[in-house]
Inverse folding.
């Protein structure tokens, strides 16, 4: 029977605690957060430090991504400018080559007409003048083509010919 009395006492105590809990819920009271148990304080500090570490790492990664994007944008811009420049050079080279072919065709035709006149023993001065003009035009076209090619070579060499700052000077200026 002593077990039954013990159970009754425990049930009564539990009902009393429930009653106090219901009364506490009925009254609006500002509840202060419970202080963390002493054993959890070290864990909370460690978690906060880990969170701050992750935030710092995230900020560094965001900065790296931004720097990479800026570098990529500038590289793409430089490549687009270079493609435009090379396209213009290619078009100019194509025009020069067409002009050179045309001049060589004229020179070949004039030379053929001059050979035929010489074979017939009838040298005609206008054929000689025509051949000379065609040859002169071919030489001009060849010179223009050579000049354009030289400009392309110089444009490619120009970055290597400009003086670059010494590596230790750039490191000192960034520090």
């Amino acid at each position: 029977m002593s077990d039954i009395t013990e159970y009754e006492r425990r049930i009564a105590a539990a009902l009393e605690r429930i009653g106090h809990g219901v009364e506490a819920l009925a009254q609006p009271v500002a509840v202060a957060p419970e202080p963390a148990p002493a054993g959890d304080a070290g864990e909370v500090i460690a978690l906060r430090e880990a969170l701050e570490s992750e935030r710092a790492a995230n900020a560094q990664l965001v900065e790296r991504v931004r720097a990479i994007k800026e570098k990529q944008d500038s590289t793409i811009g430089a490549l687009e400018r270079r493609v435009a420049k090379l396209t213009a050079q290619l078009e100019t080279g194509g025009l020069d080559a067409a002009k050179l072919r045309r001049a060589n065709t004229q020179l070949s035709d004039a030379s053929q007409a001059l050979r035929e006149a010489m074979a017939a023993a009838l040298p005609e001065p206008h054929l000689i003048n025509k051949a000379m003009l065609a040859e002169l035009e071919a030489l001009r076209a060849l010179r223009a083509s050579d000049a354009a090619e030289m400009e392309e070579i110089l444009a490619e060499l120009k970055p290597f010919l400009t003086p670059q700052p010494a590596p230790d000077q750039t490191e000192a200026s960034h520090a």
Q: What stands out?
A: The chain has a mean pLDDT of 79. The longest helix spans residues 38-119. Residues 110 and 129 are 9 Å apart (CA to CA).
